[in-house]
Amino acid sequence: MNKQPITSRVHLPILIATAIILLVVVPVLHRCGIISDFTLGNWGKYLCYGILAISIDLLWGYTGLLCLGQALFFTLGGYMMGMYLMRSIGGKAMPTFLSMRGFTEWPSFFLPFSSFPFAMLMMVVVPGLLALGFGFLAFRSRIKGVYFSILTQALTYGAALLFFRNEMLMGGNNGFTDFRTLLGFDLRDIGTKRSLYIATALLLIGVVALCKWLTGSRFGLIQRAIRDSENRVLFSGYATANYKLFVFVISAVIASFAGALFVPQVGIINPSEMDTSKSLEAVVWVALGGRGTIIGPVLGAISVNALKSWASSGATADFWPMILGGSFVLVVLFMPKGIVGLPAQIQGVLARLKKKKEEEEIPAISEKSPATDP
Q1: Which end of the chain is more exposed for a tag (fewer CB within 10 A), N or C?
Q2: In a domain, 98, yes or no
Q3: Model confidence pLDDT, tens digit, residues 110-130
Q4: CA 352/CA 360 separation, integer angstroms
Q5: What is d(CA 217, CA 215) in angstroms, rounded to the nearest whole number?
Q6: Which domain holds residue 223?
Q7: Helix, strand, or coil (residue 103)
Q8: Closest by Cα among 372, 370, 200 to 298
Q9: Rounded Cα distance, 166 and 181, in Å
Q10: Is position 192 within any domain?
Q11: pLDDT, tens digit, for every residue of 296-354?
């Protein structure tokens, strides 16, 4: 079995310092005007992507399941939040996507979403049940490897086509937008935007803590054993399908909550978020940061999206896909452990060079030493 990843040795003070920066320093700097509203909104979005990356790492990095459908669960959580936000707009006028189809009243399935607790419940139930049903069929059929990846990608593509249809009454290709309030607070207010950022940072810290605990427990040992050699785990008497199903459902719910907090910060949700390229891009974040590390995918998501914000504007906009692809190739070839593994990788190279230098110096010393007379 592989050695414990480098992030298992990250000291608690470093994680606490990071939490203080996210929860205290950044909001204070924003309140003082040093950080702009636009920058704060971007960082809120990056943290949502970081949570999504963790959900992929929990599957791919620790269990060996490369899921190309996490964008589906991310978007479903966004739609659950979007339905609540649409119901919160108020007024007698119907949204355009309903009035164009002749609706004068809200469809019945929209009505319960006037309640925020119900919307939060649906953020768990809808993606959780979908993951449970799909995962049960897939894992009981012993589907794994590239076949599992293809099936999750096909599921996401099929769901996107379904949501693009106006008959779904979910806004079609335009989705939901023009949100105004959340729990009675104006979404355009600076204080509300700051609160959403803090909520996202709290969720990220909570998810990191949960996943660190889960992967550090006996359950995590079985996870890594399944990743390294599932047949041996089966022969040891463990029901690997149940373990994989549990992880799949948990990762789907995590991605859903990330999507739910993403929507009020960007102001829109539509089926394009389910695009298969979104899931593939998220896989790049995990690989770049370092899979099987929890912290690495967060760093990868923030780094790639910050780079994207810079490179996708101006003269470099047309070259962004090549920059992303080149980064992925670079990581695969020269940084197999990602960003978090780079210090250990550099340390290993330096240690080998030092050892090689010492080995070269030993013959030189022995040649210089005078021969002793018999």
Answers
A1: C
A2: yes
A3: 889 989 999 999 999 999 999
A4: 12
A5: 6
A6: 13-274
A7: coil
A8: 200
A9: 25
A10: yes
A11: 899 889 988 888 877 766 666 667 777 777 777 887 777 777 788 777 777 777 888 77
Beta bridge partners of 181: 186
**Which residues make beta-bridge pairs with 268?**
177
Residue 186's DSSP bridge partners are: 181
In 3D space, the residue among 85, 86, 59 whose CA is nearest the CA of residue 254 turns out to be: 59
The radius of gyration of the chain's CA atoms, rounded to the nearest angstrom, is 24
**What are phi and psi for residue 292, nearest 5 degrees?**
75, 30
**Helix, strand, coil percentages, rounded to 5, for the chain:** 75, 0, 20
Given a contact cutoff of 8 angstroms between Cβ atoms, the answer to whether 164 and 271 are in contact is yes
Residue 75 C-beta-side C-alpha neighbours within 13 Å: 23
Q: Which two tokens stand for residue 59?
A: 């599957």
Question: Into how many domains does the chain fold?
Answer: 1
The DSSP-derived string for 160-218 is: HHHHHSGGGSS-TTT-EE---EETTEETTSHHHHHHHHHHHHHHHHHHHHHHHHHHHSH
Other Cβ atoms less than 10 A from the Cβ of 359: the count is 9
The dihedrals phi and psi of 269, each to the nearest 5 degrees, come to: -145, 130
Residue count of the chain: 374
Q: Is residue 165 part of a domain?
A: yes
Residue type, 367: E
298: its two tokens: 């967060």
- Tens of pLDDT, residues 246-289: 999 999 999 999 999 999 999 889 998 888 888 888 998 998 88
Asked whether residue 104 is domain-assigned, the answer is yes
Cβ contact 106:87 at 8 Å? yes
